[in-house]
# Entry
Amino acid sequence: MQKITLLIHCKDQKGIIAAVTNYIACIDGNIVYLDQHVDEDEDVFFMRIECEFKNPKNDLKALEADFEQQLAAPFEMTWQLFTQEQKPKMAIFVSKYDHCLYDVLGRYRANELPLEISVIISNHRDLEPVAQQFGIPFYHVPFTKEIKVKGEEQQLEILHKYEIDFIVLARYMQIITPNLIARYKNRIINIHHSFLPAFPGAKPYHSAFKRGVKIIGATSHYVTEELDEGPIIEQDIARVSHSHSIEDFITKGRDVERMVLARAIKLHAEHKTMVYNNKTVVFL
Amino acid sequence: MQKITLLIHCKDQKGIIAAVTNYIACIDGNIVYLDQHVDEDEDVFFMRIECEFKNPKNDLKALEADFEQQLAAPFEMTWQLFTQEQKPKMAIFVSKYDHCLYDVLGRYRANELPLEISVIISNHRDLEPVAQQFGIPFYHVPFTKEIKVKGEEQQLEILHKYEIDFIVLARYMQIITPNLIARYKNRIINIHHSFLPAFPGAKPYHSAFKRGVKIIGATSHYVTEELDEGPIIEQDIARVSHSHSIEDFITKGRDVERMVLARAIKLHAEHKTMVYNNKTVVFL
Amino acid sequence: MQKITLLIHCKDQKGIIAAVTNYIACIDGNIVYLDQHVDEDEDVFFMRIECEFKNPKNDLKALEADFEQQLAAPFEMTWQLFTQEQKPKMAIFVSKYDHCLYDVLGRYRANELPLEISVIISNHRDLEPVAQQFGIPFYHVPFTKEIKVKGEEQQLEILHKYEIDFIVLARYMQIITPNLIARYKNRIINIHHSFLPAFPGAKPYHSAFKRGVKIIGATSHYVTEELDEGPIIEQDIARVSHSHSIEDFITKGRDVERMVLARAIKLHAEHKTMVYNNKTVVFL
Amino acid sequence: MQKITLLIHCKDQKGIIAAVTNYIACIDGNIVYLDQHVDEDEDVFFMRIECEFKNPKNDLKALEADFEQQLAAPFEMTWQLFTQEQKPKMAIFVSKYDHCLYDVLGRYRANELPLEISVIISNHRDLEPVAQQFGIPFYHVPFTKEIKVKGEEQQLEILHKYEIDFIVLARYMQIITPNLIARYKNRIINIHHSFLPAFPGAKPYHSAFKRGVKIIGATSHYVTEELDEGPIIEQDIARVSHSHSIEDFITKGRDVERMVLARAIKLHAEHKTMVYNNKTVVFL
# Structure
């Protein structure tokens, strides 16, 4: 049994669902999941389909070419096709905070993530032992404003060497260069430690404490050139009270951060997110 | 612009989605929402479609007959078709607790519920003033084990008179007769004040307090002959602690009850629930 | 059995708890609840005590004078004493949105709020029938920038006439004058339809939709001269997704608004909130 | 600065709080946290105090003897005193599931847990590499009904050798013997994968799926001889829908399990839990 996932978006048009589902029926596929969304303001159609084939399509190239000709071209679709066997390759960028890293690696070893963690890149050496402990290649790539050209060059080289599909910033405390963002458009996931758009930028827990909020949160989003302004993938919150200190906010926040980041990684790796107009469509 | 909602379930078969979406395209409908589900254990297919017609179908009977012949018969579908204008008629059964009643009536007057509240039936006279205050017909139908045949008869008469589509038990403290359940199969919604299957039956807050739980809940479900065993529509919870008394449990629980009941009523009235195998499919 | 609640705050000093609890023991009171908080940054001490007296203190004035002399003066306390019988008198300000109003009035009639709703004031006549339906005096006080002096005057007169203790803005869409804020310092509760500090000001659901957030929220806070910047009493959130329109955000948000407002009203009426440094201490 | 935590419970009596807080003031302690609870049904008083001493009490034995004589004896208190430096020693029991183990060890290495993980005991060898990876001693102690006397003997020997203070069952799939339970009364924490009392015993996710619930949960509790009937420390839930398979329930449930277990471990290690009458008092 072969399982294929199809992501499609295009201008909304009458008959798209019929056309695509017909096509899948004609090539002997069985649809096990279909979700669609119409953005009525933008008049855009989104669809995610999972289908199964009893007789595996061994020549995927031919299938893709046929789909392009029969459907994608006439409807002017932007589309992607994934097979379940292709596990995306992920790189992790970290600095010194280790809680998200431990959480992601623990989940990886517990077989909860449908992906391959190929490499860990850090601007510090502090977390190298964690990488070693979990048997993941680790690269120390210093990065500051002064050496960002060289830093970016090294990063790109490593990402290329490991054929990385997407990048996770697990509390990485340096900016990502526009060049890297462009190369990995909608494929760099950051975790920010506030419920955006509240408290963007540095030290959000301190700001939240000062404001006297009763809930704190975390936000995972795709990285764009505007800091903390990219398309939001997932958010969650925790309740706090007057009895909590800034340190308590940070401790409680860590739990939210790791949960929200883990969910975003999983959604991305399972091809359940689509980006349009600086927003995400997340098919659960 | 005419809006039609279609609910379908049948044995899972290849090509159903294509057939139905084709049909809608052929009759000039535009699908604005489609959600489907396959119960793989039971091999059953469920679908909910909302579609819009620029040229309203004035002869719905003809449309229904055509759909039956073209699609429902060949695929052996169980199906229902609703137009947006048809607001379902709802009866409320209450006893003496008034918090759910106030909540439902307040939402109704605030135009949050796509339905018509036609009548309130109670085994006590206590809440008659509330019905009057909101201008809803009220009937006092005494009901005890001893007079349940007569009670049921009166209930059915009133339900018939007001052409009731579905019934909401807003903390109604008497049993519903098998006859009434059969007449309104999957159309009687109860709110039970625990997260079922924990604490079925009477006094769940007392049992929860005794057990020392840290969360309490409420459950809305369709009524079946087995007490508190019907298909669950919606559940939610609230956190409690050692500092809460049984009275606090009850107070906090009331908030959960009214929220969970209101959501279930709305889901049912919007034709977003389907029942199969004592479970619900809820298309959000 | 007489029940008294005591709220205290002062500079943190060694021995305060002992002194106060000793005092209560000496006057034959039994402490049934004690909660305290030290703001270590500001070095301020807060305490809330509920105590019971088998022999009621009929001369409260004498008790207060004694407490002032024995404890409040030496420790330089700011303090308040409440008996359970004194129900605070509340005024509701509304404009045209009715969902919070229905919710508060429904809870009031269902005996969930330990207070008296004395009057409803509105800058429109739309909700007068709701006030009548629930038997609460209603005053139409037009209010715009141009007539704000006259509007304020009328508001103050009505508040004075009904001896109002605190004011609830149940989605009141006009500004509150500095004069009124000063008279009811930390006694005017607003409900804002976002999780502040995200989306202050007008049309927060529209902004939240545009930003593509995955959670929306509501915030109840005491009104200060800075719009949406006052001390936060309570917040809560609801999950949203790409499939929700702005209208869906608004509908889901209404549920959060009414819940958060109801909780804030209850906390205030039970004397469980204290304000310091633009933050609240909320003793649950 | 020395920090001491005091846990007290006894029959409710007038003047206890005053007596204890007086005592602390007299020995030059500053109370930074005080929480108390009166179980009115059982007439029992609970208190947790954190206090700081600028001049450390080096002779703790003397302090304890003095407290016993001055306060504990006259009020017939059950009480415990902890200093912040004493980190409790924890043993982990596991079988084959690794997600809770990875989570606890990750948090431990990320310095989130105020305790020492001294040893891991398992009835299988599968997770030995995880223990090695994190540098924690691992013991394989086979355990079945047939060899439970020998198994228990080995377990007790290891627990004794490492001077274990409390035990965490991180999805340990064997029963704990009555003898072990008695030795570690209210010091063995289990994580059960349902919101108890719903779905006790084996395969709760399967039962939850069959019942068609809309929320699943997890419960951490102290182990007693009655399976899944011990005092509940913490619970939490996750929402599920018709679209989730049993496998999805299990995956989502793992997140709840690890969060609920981690919270319970932290609460216990920080001496924030007290047990009475098969319920917990949890001072947050």
